[in-house]
Amino acid sequence: MDGGNQTRISDFLLLGISESPEQQQVLFWMFLSMYLVTVVGNVLIILAISFDPRLHTPMYFFLANLSFTDLFFVTNTIPKMLVNLQSQNKAISYAGCLTQLYFLVSLVTLDNLILATMAYDRYVAICRPLHYVTAMSPALCILLLTLCWSLSLLYGLTLTLFMTKVTFCGSRKIHYIFCEMYVLLRLACSNTQIIHIVLITTGIFIFLTPFGFMMISYIRIVRTILQIPSASSKYKAFSTCASHLAVVSLFYGTLCMVYLQPLQSYSMKDSVATVMYAVVTPMMNPFIYSLRNKDMHGALGRLLLGKALQKVT
Description:
It contains ten helices and three strands, in the order βααβαααβααααα. The chain is an all-alpha fold. Helices cover about 75% and strands about 5% of the residues. The protein is globular, with a radius of gyration of 21 Å.
């Protein structure tokens, strides 16, 4: 298949999960509600951390960046999805599709790396508390975050460049809600074996290596917590990690369901799993991190009270 055949497709059709008008209306209101909750929740987290000096610590610095990533992540996909659900024209340009794919891959990777960095922060705080201030200095936090962003953007660019070499010359219908890697590869009429190998090998490195690092960190954290004599101190130490563990479990559980499998076995159930990590996880993160966190409760209360007093005055 020659490279000129790729130009036969100038756009794709994002048909979504269902083509039934009744179901599309239900999906529209469901995704709109989830998007608004995600935006409000993550914006509140960012504002509370930004304006409350008590939260100017490494843990909350990384949490604010995680919320920003989640906010950017859903904005990359859901608005276009909502327009398609309400419009007869469901086309997305070839360039627009690859742009969406680039940010999708980059931001999922960034989420993953920030979660690993947060695990390291918890490890230092619990296992090396006397060295925490020097070990997690502002300069190191900025360096770690810069590395996370750089690796994520580079990884997204690498996979997107590989996708530009894939030839699309047949169907342009995507029975899905956004331009996702595996869905696009199933539409390809050129050999995708190389890019699939690249996906698996780089995925093992970029996702499973941080995951292994997190597991090692938490094994050491649990050992340290078990050595604490006071039951209340054990509970307090574990509670600082519980929210992070819940987010990690949700993130990796859905991600592994989708990507750690052969391309040929990708099916609609994996589309549901993709919706979980692309929509549900960013929506749940603010709730998970704030429900059990007294400092966050206080910061959100002061933020909302301050806004209310400003309106009164």
